[in-house]
């Protein structure tokens, strides 16, 4: 019996650890081909290995979700490797050590916004353009 996501290609941001890793593992167990996107290469490699050792299909891509060029490269690499993208999970996010507003610099705040707001916008824009094609 095929899984619910058999043959679908999924980009999952922030999937080197935590909730993103759990999503990637679940999607792979349902037959999806998952692109593990994270800024931590060691975590990417570990997640890819766990998924492939369990019989799933996965590869990884190092990307900083606050950087437009990284996001464009991530989507392009996925299309080059798998010919298309069906699913995007915008999971990457940061809180930067749960500091109070009085202890958060403007630079730190801008980094949170770049990853948590701009990253999903840019990733959605790039992935949707590929999906529409």
Describe the largest sheet. 4 strands, parallel
Which architecture would the CATH scheme give at its second level? 3-Layer(aba) Sandwich
Q: Report the CATH superfamily.
A: NAD(P)-binding Rossmann-like Domain
Looking at the structure, the CATH topology is Rossmann fold
Q: Give the strand order, joined by hyphens, for the main sheet.
A: 3-2-1-4
What this model shows, in words?
It is a single chain. The protein is an alpha/beta fold. The protein has a single domain (9-132), classed as Rossmann fold (3-Layer(aba) Sandwich). It is 50% helix and 15% strand. It has 4 helices and 4 strands, in the order βαβαβαβα. The chain has a 4-stranded parallel sheet with strand order 3-2-1-4, with helices on both faces. The longest helix has 27 residues, at 106-132.
Q: What labels would you give this structure?
A:
single chain, about 130 residues, alpha/beta, Rossmann fold, 4-stranded parallel β-sheet, globular
Q: What's this model, at a glance?
A:
With 133 residues, the protein is an alpha/beta fold. It contains 4 helices and 4 strands; from the N terminus they run βαβαβαβα.
